[in-house]
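Regression check, zinc ion case 304:
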Amino acid sequence: MEAVGIDIGGTKMAVALVNTSGLIIKRAVLATEAGQGFGRAVDRLADCVRGMLGDTGQGAVTGIGIGCAGPLDPTAGIINNPYTLTGWSNCDIVTPLSRRFGVPVRLENDADVAALGECAWGAGAGFDPVVMLTFGTGVGGAAVVQGRIYRGANGEHPELGHIPISSNGLECYCGIRGCLESIASGSAMAAAGRPRFADARSLFAAAAGGDDFAAGVVDRAVQAAAMAAWTLCHTFLPERIVLGGGIMDDQFELFARGMRKHLGTATQFSRKSVSIAKASLGSDAGIVGAASLFLPGAVRGPAS
Ligand SMILES: [Zn+2]
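Current build output:
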């Protein structure tokens, strides 16, 4: 049994044929070229999927799962993200693809499918609930509870990157000052390091080399992440927190240490009940997680 997973981002769209073990059998990457129009992107995705199914036959796939950068409406299957996908307002991606291929199609937020992927075959497997935080240009997050994406009102997911941390912080587009993303995202750290440092990577390197200013910016980000973990543990009480995104490729231990230390002082839950792990599927988490929506048994239930 196989399913198709699609991961749509601002610059590229990844498409993969995934089996029930989470293995990618075929894959392709297309430029998103959002500005060329939504209809054209759907046509190109459909051509790509058709090419993949060529010798398999479309009857062999159980469905097409799509993860996309939000805002979007997962219940209606509508992408509404003109911010990073130019011109994509109110775009129904589910109807045209399900019509063309005659299989069920589902749209979910990209952070949600990445968390599903990690829970099915990665660092979250066997744990429940799982909260995943992704530190990249921004900070994203998702919660998976009993094998399902945690949803709030209108089917939307919690915006974990906008947990308030410090009222002294910079103003964020979310509406407050000093949220997690405004302190610990790659872009926020890069902004805090300018003009001395070009980006977050050079800040981390200078901090490791003993530069006090860089160490201050890095420490602030680590503390912010630790405070966010505190809030997440007192709300979702996850069995595992999975940390992903480009920043964690090199800095996982630094952030995990800060979180563990902070959580160690908590009295309302056992620190031993929460583990912190590095995401293990890398950039494939989104496509395999999207496909997992149509691979029965892929997402494990509560660990017993
Ligand atoms: Zn914010």
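Comparison notes: Residues 162, 172, 174, 179, 181-182 surround zinc ion (CB under 6 Å). The longest strand covers residues 12-19. No diff flagged against the previous build.
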